[in-house]
Amino acid sequence: MDAYPEDYVAHNLPLILLSGLEAGCEETAEAGNTDYPLLNERGSQIYSDFPSLSGTIAEELRTVLMEEDASQAPWNSRNETHNESSGIRVQIKSIGRSFKLPPRKADPPTTSRPASPTTDSYTGTPAGIPWVLHSPISPLTPKSPTFPDGLLTPLWVTKHQKLVPSAVVNFFPFSLDSNMNSLRDNQLKIEINELRKQWFSSGFKTRFLVVFVSEDGREDQLTDVDDRVAGIRRATNLDPRSIFFISPGITTAELRIFASALIGSLQPWIVEYYRDLSKHARRKRNRSTIPPPTAPPTSGTSQTLSVQGWNMRYEFKLGIFAEFRQEMDAACRNYESAYETLFGQEVFENIAGWSPRFNDARLLADSLAIRIIRCQLWTGQTTAAVRSWVSHRYRSQGVINRRGKGTKNYGWEAWEARWSMVMAQLIRRAEIPSLSSSIVSIGPGQSATSGLTFAHPEKTIPSGEPISPWEHLHHEGYWLSRSAKHSKLRRNLARQIPEEDRIPPGQSPASQIANKFYMYDTYLAPETHVEAPLSGRQGFDHSSLIIDTLNASLKEFSIRNQRRMVESLTLEIAEEYIKIGSWSEAFKILQPMWSSLSWRNAGWWRLMERFGWALRECAFQLNSAETVLRVDWELLSNIFKPRPDWTYDMHKSLKSLPSEKPKPSVVLRAEDVVGCLTASLVFEKAEGNVGEPLQVQLVVSSNAHSLSGPISLSEIKIVFEGCLRPVKLQSDHNAEPDTTSATRIASLQLREQSSSDSSSLQSPTSGLMPLVGLADLTISPSQTKVFDLTCIPRESGEARVASITLLMEEDEFDLAYAITTQEQYKPSWWQQTSKGPARRRVGMTRDPRRCKILPKPPKIRITTPNLRGNYYTNEQVALRIMIQNEEEETVDVSAEIRLFGRPDSAAKIQWPDELPGGAEPSDPADTAGSSPTEGASHFLKRSIGVMNSSATQELVVILRDTNEASDFELEVSALYNLVSDAQTPIVKVVTVELTFIRPFEANYEFLPRIHPEPWPDFFHFSDYLIADEAREKPDGLQQRWCLNSKVVSFAKESLIIEKISLVLLNLSGGAVSTIGSESIVGREPSSELAPEGLRDSNFDLDIQKLRLADRRPTSLDLELDIQWRRPGDSNSPESLTTTTLAIPRFLAPMGEPRVLASSKPSPSLSGLIHIDYTIENPSLHFLTFNLTMEASEQFAFSGPKSTVVKLVPLSRHTVRYNLLAFGRGLWIQPQLVVVDAYFNKTLRVLPTEEMRSDKKGILVWVDADD
């Protein structure tokens, strides 16, 4: 916006003058540069010889007040950098003591009114009436720059922005010297009254304020300050709100608070001041009449300003005053009304294109459009701002084409560039949050840009209204780029100006000058002799303007990571540098970006071609041989458009450059450049074997321009990742190069290289000796050469192509082109046919660039003849392994056996000849080489030695300690090599699945029994009590229990059970126990147990307390040992397997009374049952039990219906009942209720042998009659 008058386009802020503080250099210079008419001649002088304040407080006060100046604040409604309490932002100037106000009226004309006729023919007023005077800048004043039909001048905005303040703050020293107070106060009264008189006589309604800054003094001298200040206020007739006092010793923080409060107190007066000016302008607009001029126009063709022109002036003024009040919505409406009036039929359309008023109207139209856009950006209407910008461009273009000099000249393009620049500057000053280009730090070494590339439309736009993409407000970089584009068009049009029009005005005839005036638009643009000077003359520097604009645009796009635009702008900047011959500057910005251009991957070849040729030209001028080689290699590709006058030959790239020592060496990666050669390698098959030939095909094709010279490679290096040796193809200088065939297939013989090549590329196989071959490596344009290669792998694994490097070694340079990825090439296999070379597509079901190298196929046979389908826990397995040599020659074999299973498994493997208990093997090498994750118990190794063809060797492996049901995997590996080829290891691996299941499961019951031995009592003396005290013999109570086990077979086959025994693991509670042998229940004893068969067994347990007084319960930990074997195994101890089944812990209460029932049939009478109820009292208390036998429909009984049994401590008593059942072959249920009389507790009757029980009680079986 520098081309426009500053006051026309700048944001208007209320002006506040600081009088009495030191004036700054900028304020003094600005006051002297004002060109307001009659300012010096008739301006109102505000003068005071009172010295300005000085000292520390005065300087700090001026500083904090100038910080409230918002001249450089962003043009938006966010008040972030200034005090929020200040409300309306203001402009503050420090002027010293003197200031000059502009005159309100112009001088009357120097010529008198005409004497005859007596009435003025123009105004219709009598000739003797005094002149009607107006403002010096009014169109009604003869000497005004707008007289008689001018629209407006920037001086009117200058008047209100820089010359007429809304408020003036006068600073005076306030004495605290008691001897001088009266004199100094009187001086202040006189000075203030004089200043008020001067401001009042000027005619402006500027607010007058006074601030007293106290001089240094003591606190006791401040007692009469209020009275003195009140006296001065009354003498000067000041408003109490217009006078302030600053006490001595005030701090900087307090001064800031004072400054903020002072500016805040002016807010209502400022608003009222500009509101009064708006009312005055509105009243004049509403009159709808043209004021009478001071004097009529004297020119015959001159005319006064029309009514529409006056309305436009009033609307513009109302908008300015609203902007002073920062009522941006109202200001925008006034500006839009003035804009529409300006472009109406009666204003702009009535101005002739040759008239200077036409350019004045254009300047005013641009200023109005700028102010409208600023108001819209201020209120967040970004889309409306873009539309206003575009609308003004179209309307200006239409007016200029209709009334002006057209838009096909450099003046219009200069305006286009300037108009785009204006939009960029408006966006920058507005600081729109969504378009902010500030960089926000997010961590050490990291940064993130804030802001988008464009702002979203405002919410006030109706949802259904279509919005074009360009109507989204883009960041300023977009507008700067557009400005540079039109600056280039401006330069092109300027260069088309004929030489006769470029002659300076003083050297060309008048007719030529007039012709130029009517042909060229010089609105805010230089004349033709400056725009396009003759050779040897200085003129306008278009390149500097374009470069500066592009650099500013580049910065914005770069901050937002818009990479493609950054590259495009960089190219434009470089091209501008090239045009002015600044090769080094162009090279500095082009060379770093060449290798990382995004256009290369996006396929934007035309742009990349421009970039490449520009870079090559710079490199050539600066003798950068390496850059020339890099660019020439890519420009040689036929993907770019060839230059008709250019010789494409890589071998002659540096022909015109001076030679360098050492010669330049360039390494290019195919992934980073557009190559003129392509190379790919394909494996014939997806798999190969160690020691067997593997067919590989290398294809090299040329994509160079058809008229370019052939490329002669010196060497091709192929490096594999995996187990293949590198291959090196060298140029055969003895063979005649074939440059005519479109496709040529050659089979090459590879040979060993005597020593490793120190120049080989770094690769996973760089330690291997390369294979070398000779070939024709000269490739002509569009030619394809195919090389069939045969490799013999020596190791197994996966092989793939790591890199293919094409080398050119010339006297002037070395160039290496490395291809590390081939995904972009379609794999195919070439073969020679009767019609010539043909290719077929490969890789539909595999990756042809990879090959899996398998080990040499093993011919060792491994079998396990005695492998069973299932094994059982605790079973020791002896697995036979047969190894047979089916190779045609002698081999050296070693066997490895690994056991895989659960990590916590205790299972282990060992050779039969190892000592029991896990002793070390006799040969330490047998367990060498264990896996790091496996112990020696899971890994076995044994050397078998040399085996002749068809020989067989047997190994036996013992698997033991399989205590848990689980699945195991036994891996048997035979590692061998042919005696004739000891360097090639061969492995044969066989995996055996071993499943271990539990052979048995069991359920258990712990049943009470009646011990046949009598209980001890207090009336019998035992002999052991007088025996040796060292001998201990249990003398406590004893009980008999029965453990019933029901063992079920879960095996898949019948098993032979040799023995089942009950083992006592632990007995607690101070007791001893005796366990009887197994007693099979319910059937004849049989040693064979079929699958899912049941074996019901009883074991008697006698438990006796060690001490008679011990009443603690006794717990028993038991387990069941089952010794079994398979039916086909021998009866030797080695074939027996012992399976241990866990038994839950059982508890035997030894100190509580209980009731045991036992029954036996009568031998003399069928159906008669003798049932005995034994009541035990193991306690040391006298117990009384009430017994009641309930009647039943199942039987009749004899015995006491109810009785009482009293038991002494440590005693038991038996009560017998005789039951006669009413039926036979059934279970009867006698109900004897036994109640402890003292505790009133019913004791449960426990059944014993050949009895049952349910929840109701015991059950007794009555045999059927025979």
UniProtKB/TrEMBL annotation:
Biased composition (Polar residues): 73-88
Domain of life, per lineage: Eukaryota
Compositional bias segments (type: Low complexity): 108-121
UniProt-annotated stretches for the region Disordered: 69-88, 99-124, 284-304, 910-934
Residue ranges of domain Gryzun putative trafficking through Golgi in the record: 666-1263
Segments forming domain Trafficking protein particle complex subunit: 357-637
Protein name: Trafficking protein particle complex subunit 11 domain-containing protein
